[in-house]
Amino acid sequence: MTSWSAVEFLELAERIAREAGEMLLAKRPARPEVLATKSSPTDVVTALDRASEELIRARIKEARPHDAILGEEGGATGGGRVRWVVDPIDGTVNFLYGVPEWAVSIAVEADGEIVAGVVNIVPRGEVFTAARGEGAWLAGERLRCNSGVRLDRALIATGFGYEPGRRAVQAEVLAHVLPRVRDIRRGGSAASDLCALAAGRVDGYYERGPQYWDWAAGGLVATEAGARIGGLHGRPCSPELTICAAPGLFEELHDLLAPLDPERDA
Ligand code: IPD
Ligand code: CA
Ligand code: CA
Ligand code: CA
């Protein structure tokens, strides 16, 4: 018997994502400071990345003390059938510069499946939500991604992971993709890119390097809006490659990217 409800998880996740967003807006200094760097000098962390994750973890623990949590800043804690997947600020570089495109992303996984997701794009006041089987929503409107778009007419969002060795290959892949699509958008937040896809603001998305917390919530928003998400050759999404688009365009994008071997390092 199932002892959880995706809609209840979503309500809690949304409440927490909104509270974290309010805290971040209230505490964001005019010029946030880089506290540390991670995989490369351009992969930055601010004090508020950590504060946001601490707040989110505290609220999850208050409400559901036995659940597991995977967060970008705090790693993996706990065990059990329910796991929360947290990106406390997705788009830290935008947050640093005051570019109004960063998000709090929280997903809930039950028995290994993502069942609820919220992406709070804080500076825009847009809160995207999805519960498995219940659709994707923004401000009371049900979302549908664009369908029937050919690759050469498609607006494609992408991102560039920070790990050393990746960027030169990403540039090569981009040089191959750009002349074959309508245009490229690099927003700076994978969670926001996937929500933009759900809302029909872009047609497709691909990226090499994204981690689970980058796409867990936004991926559910996109799939509940009719998109397909996955990796290469039927594999699940992974840092190797994550692709998202409506069926049809997904396959075209996949077939464009697959021969480029985006896994190799420069
Ligand atoms: C990053 C953003 C960016 C993507 C990177 C991510 P962060 O997350 O989602 O759009 O291109 O791959 O690492 O570090 O700002 O949470
Ligand atoms: Ca992220
Ligand atoms: Ca982050
Ligand atoms: Ca980060």
Can you characterise this structure?
This protein has 2 domains: 6-142, Fructose-1,6-Bisphosphatase, Chain A, domain 1; 151-260, D-Maltodextrin-Binding Protein, domain 2, CATH 3.40.190. It contains 7 helices and 15 strands. The protein has helices at residues 6-27, 47-63, 92-97, 167-177, 190-198, 212-224, 249-257, and strands spanning 34-37, 44-46, 68-71, 75-77, 82-90, 103-110, 113-121, 126-131, 136-138, 141-142, 155-160, 183-185, 204-208, 228-230, 242-245. A hairpin with a 2-residue loop joins strand 6 and strand 7. The N and C termini lie far apart (49 Å). The mean pLDDT is 94. The structure holds D-MYO-inositol-1-phosphate and calcium ion (3 copies).
Short description:
Its cofactor is Mg(2+). By secondary structure, the protein is of the alpha+beta class.
Largest sheet: 8 strands, mixed
What do we call the CATH homologous superfamily of the largest domain? Fructose-1,6-Bisphosphatase, subunit A, domain 1
What fold name goes in the CATH topology slot of the largest domain?
Answer: Fructose-1,6-Bisphosphatase, Chain A, domain 1
What's the helical proportion of residues?
25-40%
- What structural category arises from helix and sheet content? alpha+beta
- How would you spell out the order of helices and strands? HEEHEEEHEEEEEEHEHEHEEH
Bin the strand percentage.
25-35%
Radius of gyration: 17 Å
Physical arrangement of strands within the biggest beta sheet: 4-3-5-6-7-8-9-10
Distance, first to last CA: 49 Å
Q: Would you count the extended β strands for me?
A: 15
CATH class call of the largest domain: Alpha Beta
The distinct ligands, each listed once, are: D-MYO-inositol-1-phosphate, calcium ion
EC number: 3.1.3.25
Catalytic activity: a myo-inositol phosphate + H2O = myo-inositol + phosphate
Cofactor: Mg(2+)
Family: Belongs to the inositol monophosphatase superfamily.
